[in-house]
Structure formats: structure tokens, C-alpha cells
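Exercise 7.
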Amino acid sequence: MQVVTDTKLPEDVFQRVKELHRDCFGPLHFSVKRILPPFYFLFLYKLKGKIIGYAYLHNFRTTVYLQRLCIESTQRGTQHGSIFLKHILRTMDTTQKEFYLAVEKTNDKAIRFYQKHHFRITKENKDTFHMTWIP
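Solution. The predicted structure, written as C-alpha cells, is:
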């Protein structure tokens, strides 16, 4: 696993993340930028040298926001998502900060996945749940 904090992503990494994004989220607005803004982190999950997942986080002063977590569709159900999320939680400073995310209310699989990893629904909007990690 690798954390990318460089200002500019290499072209091959950027293209692979874009492919994974389409695989996970369809042709939605692509939110990962080639040039990472300050305080953003891109985690890459590699298996046998190939990037099979990514996570895009914003590290605020008092919170960490998990904006995207994606595992290649052919690798889902193989525990890679759990391994990756646990690594992220260990790596980020979650002892002193709130770690949270937003998930669409209709995404039952994602909601169950995050609940399995100690995320709890703490707020509700029209279309999304705000989930906070409670270790």
C-alpha cells in the first residue's frame, strides 16, 4: 500500500485511478485531481504491482473525511476492502480526529461494509448518511 502526497500524480497512476473510479462509481463526476490540493491524501492499494484500489481523503485540522474508497470490482468480496480500510485507519491520525464519510442511503452494501468496520450513522441528509468511525 502506498500513500501519495506528492503535488502532481504521475500520468499512469492518474489514469489507473480514473479507470477504477469508473469501475466503482460509473460515469460520475471524477473528483480526484491530477494535482492534489493541500491536505489531501491519495492511498493506493496494490496487489502484485497492480493498483486495485484507491482512497481519497481530506485531512482537516480536527477531522479526516474519506471522500472516496474504491476497490476494483473483480477484487470485491475478497477482503481487500477491509484490509485497505484498516490500513487507512491505522495510518491516519484517528486517535485525535473525527474520521467520517458520506454514503448514499440507497447503497446498502457500502452501509453494511462501513458498519462492519465500526462506522455509525451520525447524521442524515436527503440522499446521504453521514457515518463516523467509533472504535
